[in-house]
Structures are given as structure tokens and as C-alpha cells.
Write a structure and sequence with these properties.
Arc Repressor Mutant, subunit A; 14 strands; 11 helices; three-stranded mixed β-sheet; Rossmann fold; alpha/beta
């Protein structure tokens, strides 16, 4: 336990940083400091704040809990990325109650093959569901920290975490989210904690409707995004702003997309899958493996001679023909929930192939009256 003496406190007081005291470059002696990250994916820079956004129910809290477990453990990875700075974690949960946290945590530990109680001294929670946990309020257009913020600081002093997770942003700041100055000040409070405790702060948030439709994953003022040093967006589709409402969504699939990274290169969306109580890194699929030009010509010939509908719910969906020609089992006639993992993968492969052929104008869609129903219906056609 860290017991500080009066002498220690006096020494700390003498070294309080005055941000308005000029410092010349002559003070930059010695080796150039290296940037420090919590993880090998460079998503979470130390002494900084990262935002993780996603629609309600998409799995933000589960993903954050997995990061907490990996950081608090001795040697676990997070989605295949190494944790560079294992240590204590403090998780403030303002949405899920204690029992739900326990259930999720047990599922993660079981999936990772570790004992829940191996985290007894390294993972701590602030169970705040149903309580007022506002960290700052708006006063004359600016953010004013509350007594709860002071209590959070004291909790950090007690735990000394490497990672602080706050869930969710909407419960923590009672400010007008479109007020740029207030947004920057709120994130500034968290950045101050991150610097003071040499830790990383991850805050979970819900995007606005416009943020979801645009694919940005943002909500409110751009001040929130600008003040964070990095930001991630969790979605059920790879292209979250594709606008394809007919796109069939695999309920077990997620995509984690870096939207901002001040200190590292932005990477591509990371495909994830829900498996055994947690998300795991999905293997990148190659839809055109084993698919030839001859397969395409067979599909085009069939589309010229017969009618195949665009709607994947139809019994004569064109995807069934494609699957038959390329020799892939996609569980024809089954409901999505009844498909095996291999059949789901096969269906994703077929949809990717169809999409690519459509983009290259090898096949297209035509809308006309269905001879059986008399309704306007979309059909595939060659070219």
C-alpha cells in the first residue's frame, strides 16, 4: 500500500506544475520520451482520453469489460492485441447494475479460460446504476465539476488504475452536448485525471441519429471528438453508412472502426464475432477464393433465362443460385437464427460476391411487376 509521509507531500507541493510558467526548449534535455500506449494496437494512448461509441445494445459495455479483464490480468490479450501495461482497472458502471456486471464478467472469464477471482486485487467497480453520478454541470456556458467528480478522483487515488472506464457519457455530464466549450471542458476534466494518475481513460457513448446515418458515430458538438485523442466506433456493419437497409445483418458480427487517432495511424475496421460470452477477432474473409470467371458466366446465363429475386427472404433469391454454382452451403430455406457458423460464413461470402459483381456492372437490378403477385419487385439481371 502507498503510504505518503509529510515530507513526500511537501516535495510534491514543490513540484506542482504551473501551466502558465514559460519553459524554454533548453529544458528538453536527455533522451526523447517515447509515446506510451496501453495496447499494441495503439488505440489507447496513456495520459489521454478515448471515446468508444456505438448504438444501444451493440456491445460497447461488453467490449470495454473485455479490455478491463485483459488489462487487469497478467497476460491476456484484447482482440488479439497485446496489453503493454497490465495493471489495476477502475470501471464506473452507470447503466448495468451489480448483478449484470457479475454475469458479464463471469462469461468473459469463462470464455478466456481464467478464474474470475484471479482479478480480485486488480479489477474494481463503482456500481452507480440508478444513482446520480454527474461529474460536471453547465454553469454560464461552462462545465463545473461536481462533488461526485471529487469522489471519483479519490477512488482513483485509492485504486491507482492504469485504466479508468466510464459508462456512459450521457449519465456523467449534465451539459448541453452541442455546447462546444462545455464539451471540451468535460473531456478536459478527464484528461486531467489521466495525466495526474498516469493512466488511460475510456468513455463509452451513444451516437446521434445523424452520427449513425453518416457513419461518424458522433453526437453533439464536434468539441467532444476534438478533445479526445482517439475514438472508436462499434457497429453491426462494416460500412456503417452504406444506407443498404436490405443488407442482412449477422447478429453475431461486429466491426470496430478507429475514427480518430492523434498519435498513430488509423487502421481498417476490425471484424469481430460474438463467441462464448465475449467478442473475438474474426478471420478476414476472402469471398472470391475458389470463384472463377466461369462461375460468373453461369450466373449471368441463368439471370438471362430465368427470374431470380433480389430480396434475400424470397425462396427464389438469386443468392441461392450463386451459392449452388460456386458450391457453398448457405442453409437454403433456414431462418438466420438456425444457420450454422459455416452457413453464415457462406451466406456472407455470397452477398459479398453479389455486391462486387454489381459494383463492376456484371449483374444489376431491375424493378418490374411480379407476374404472380402483381407487385413491384426487384429482380437480378445480367449486365
Amino acid at each position: 500500500m502507498n503510504h505518503r509521509t509529510i515530507i513526500d507531500l511537501e516535495r510534491e507541493a514543490q513540484h506542482v506544475h504551473d501551466p502558465m510558467e514559460p519553459e524554454f526548449v533548453s529544458a528538453f534535455d536527455g533522451a526523447v520520451p517515447a509515446r506510451k500506449f496501453l495496447d499494441s494496437g495503439f488505440f489507447f494512448p496513456m495520459r489521454s482520453v478515448t471515446g468508444l461509441s456505438g448504438d444501444g445494445g451493440v456491445g460497447k459495455t461488453l467490449l470495454a469489460l473485455q479490455l478491463a479483464v485483459a488489462t487487469a490480468s497478467a497476460d491476456l490479450q484484447w482482440l488479439g492485441f497485446d496489453i503493454l501495461r497490465h495493471g489495476r482497472v477502475l470501471f464506473l458502471s452507470a447503466e448495468d447494475d451489480r448483478d449484470e456486471v457479475h454475469i458479464r464478467l463471469a462469461g468473459i472469464c469463462e470464455g478466456e479460460g481464467i478464474d474470475l477471482h484471479s482479478l480480485d486485487e486488480t479489477l474494481a467497480f463503482l456500481h452507480c446504476a440508478g444513482h446520480d453520478v454527474v461529474l460536471a454541470t453547465e454553469e454560464k456556458g461552462r462545465a463545473k465539476p461536481t462533488e461526485t467528480f471529487s469522489r471519483l478522483r479519490k477512488a482513483c487515488e485509492k485504486v491507482r488504475p492504469k485504466l479508468l472506464i466510464l459508462d456512459p457519457l450521457a449519465n456523467l455530464f449534465q451539459v448541453n452536448e452541442v455546447n462546444r466549450n462545455a464539451a471540451i471542458a468535460c473531456i478536459g476534466l478527464l484528461r486531467g485525471l489521466a495525466i495526474d494518475f498516469e493512466m488511460h481513460v475510456l468513455i463509452l457513448a451513444h451516437p446521434s441519429l445523424s452520427g449513425m446515418s453518416s457513419g461518424s458515430g458522433m453526437s453533439g458538438s464536434t468539441g467532444w471528438n476534438n478533445a479526445m485523442r482517439s475514438r472508436l466506433y462499434l457497429t453491426t456493419k462494416r460500412n456503417s453508412n452504406s444506407g443498404d437497409d436490405d443488407q442482412e445483418v449477422d447478429p453475431d458480427a461486429r466491426y470496430l472502426t478507429p475514427k480518430k487517432s492523434n498519435y498513430s495511424k488509423l487502421s481498417e475496421a476490425i471484424p469481430l464475432r460474438w463467441e462464448d460470452g465475449r467478442f473475438v477477432r474474426a478471420e478476414e474473409e476472402r469471398p472470391f477464393d475458389g470463384v472463377t470467371v466461369q462461375h460468373l458466366e453461369q450466373v449471368r446465363t441463368a439471370f438471362r433465362s430465368s427470374e431470380f429475386r433480389y430480396d434475400h427472404r424470397a425462396g427464389d433469391w438469386g443468392g441461392y443460385l450463386v451459392a449452388e454454382i460456386i458450391g457453398v452451403d448457405i442453409g437454403r430455406g433456414k431462418l438466420l437464427r438456425d444457420l450454422t457458423a459455416m452457413q453464415k460464413a457462406g451466406r456472407r461470402k455470397v452477398r459479398s460476391i453479389i455486391s462486387a459483381w454489381m459494383h463492376s456492372d456484371q449483374i444489376s437490378i431491375v424493378e418490374r411487376k411480379d407476374g404472380r403477385t402483381g407487385r413491384d419487385t426487384k429482380f437480378f439481371r445480367a449486365g
